[in-house]
Amino acid sequence: MIRKLKKYAIIFFLNIAKALFSPFVKIDRSLVLFSSLNGAFTDNTKYLYLTMLKTEGFKAFYVAHDINTYNLLKKQNLP
User: Fold this and answer.
1) What are the tens digits of pLDDT across the range 18-74?
2) 3 — pLDDT class (breaks 50, 70, 90)
3) How far out from the chain centre does Cα 11 lie?
4) Angle at 68 (CA atoms; ends 35, 34), nearest 5 degrees
5) Three-state SS for 46?
6) Strand runs (DSSP E) across 1-79, as ranges?
7) 72 with 44: CB under 8 angstroms?
């Protein structure tokens, strides 16, 4: 019961913060960020990211968790 109440309180306060800051933040609906749980540039995330790069109307970026992934993406000229 306490956990549920805590969860709903956090959601409530996050929604209030969102409502307060949203007039000042521009939302770009064409921006898509990709990442993976283990930080590696592999599997479905990789291929979905590469497909979205070719799709018009979207700006895709991969969020690297470590310097090795960053350097791999940089070497391949990927955003």
Assistant:
1) 888 888 888 888 898 888 888 788 888 889 999 999 989 989 999 888 898 889 889
2) confident
3) 19
4) 10
5) helix
6) 31-34, 59-62
7) no
Q: Which one, of 44, 43, 38, lies nearest residue 64 by Cα? A: 38
CA–CA separation, 72 and 63 (whole Å): 12
Query: Which run of H or of E encompasses 20?
Result: helix 2-21
- CA pair distance 7, 48, nearest whole angstrom: 32
Question: Which secondary structure element, helix H or strand E, spans residue 13, and what is its range?
Answer: helix 2-21
Residue pointed to by tokens 């007039």 = 23
Provide the pLDDT confidence category of residue 78 given band limits of 50, 70 and 90.
Answer: confident
Q: Which residue has the tokens 């209030």?
A: 16
For 38, other C-beta atoms within 10 Å of its C-beta total 9
